[in-house]
């Protein structure tokens, strides 16, 4: 969950014949979804029944509970190619949708609900209970859903070094993903209200620069000792080394409106990692960032997504969001060529330019009524 790392990196275990994690080669995706009442469009607490149904998933894929009973999460197995990843995402979404239908719910791909049910809070034990007790009203109705991308990196030292190189690109990944304009029936005016909700947690946002993995671990321990985090497997940074898998985890994006948009996030994230690995091998230093400018860039991306101006985190100036996206694609072009993904990225970006962001599509659907809204939120391709 990109919003509040309740559990760190629950990527599905490797399936039969899956490769081990390899630096910048393997990847996988976790997707968090909302459960809705098809009659009203409001969130519906049916997660326990759907999880108990144990729907059939592809080899290596898994299904998990989330913080609130109105949410569920799927995770792919370990993948090496965009086509393999897309196939698993399609099959995961279909299996989950079929199971939800049996229990009177529909599965929605939205970063926040358009309408919330009467109550999404329940008494919980274990780690979820610890989170409820620590963050209190901040998580009582916290139904934010994200798309997490894991990219294979075998050791934490390399993961932290790569993370330093990727910090400037996180706002553009968020801008491409915005899919949460509503909050309790209100249009917030933001493309990603999920990102705004997430920003309220201690230490949220673009991670700081860390000279090595020891400094990274020390900072996490410090936040735990300050009472800001439940334990050392939690952080609110939008990029972090997984404590459960040999991966670097991107937690910046809203859950994707469509499978292809999730694939776009995964392919760009992997390309960023591959480019950073190449820069490390060449001795290229990571760019310097102002923490305040980086926060402004993330805020601008959450507000307008791809439909307005963003902020260049390094040059500290406003630029059209699509110009920033184009710069990202140019930056990772050699990595996209290595994996054969350049044409795919061009096609998917052109589709986004034509159709608009998930947030724009949600707003359009709301004005057309509940059937149009549900059709938009449950579209899988």
Indicate the CATH class.
Answer: Alpha Beta
With helices defined by DSSP (H or I, 4 residues minimum), what is the helix count?
13
Beta-strand proportion: 5-15%
Q: Evaluate the radius of gyration.
A: 19 Å
Helix content: 40-55%
Give a count of the beta strands, DSSP E runs of length 2 or more.
11
Proper CATH architecture: 2-Layer Sandwich
| Elements, N to C (H/E) | EHEEHEHEHHEEHHEEHHEEHHHH
What can be said about the biggest beta sheet?
7 strands, antiparallel
Q: How many domains would you count in the coordinates? A: 1
Low-pLDDT parts are: 1-19
Oligomeric state of the chains? single chain
Function: ATP-dependent carboxylate-amine ligase which exhibits weak glutamate--cysteine ligase activity.
GO molecular function: ATP binding; glutamate-cysteine ligase activity
Keywords: ATP-binding, Ligase, Nucleotide-binding
Region (Disordered): 1-23
Structure characterization notes:
Helix 2 (82-102) runs antiparallel to helix 8 (259-281) and helix 5 (170-177) packs across helix 10 (321-339). The chain starts with 26 loop residues before the first strand and ends with a helix. 43% of the residues lie in helices and 14% in strands. The chain is an alpha+beta fold and 381 residues long. The protein is globular. The protein has one domain: Creatine Kinase, Chain A, domain 2.
Write the layout of secondary structure elements.
Blueprint: E1 27-36, H1 47-53, E2 62-65, E3 71-75, H2 82-102, E4 106-108, H3 126-135, E5 146-152, H4 156-166, H5 170-177, E6 182-183, E7 186-187, H6 193-198, H7 213-225, E8 239-241, E9 247-254, H8 259-281, H9 291-304, E10 309-312, E11 317-320, H10 321-339, H11 342-355, H12 358-368, H13 370-377
Antiparallel strand pairs: 1-3, 1-4, 1-5, 2-3, 5-9, 6-7, 8-9, 10-11
Helix pairs in contact: 2-8, 4-8, 5-9, 5-10, 8-10, 8-11, 12-13
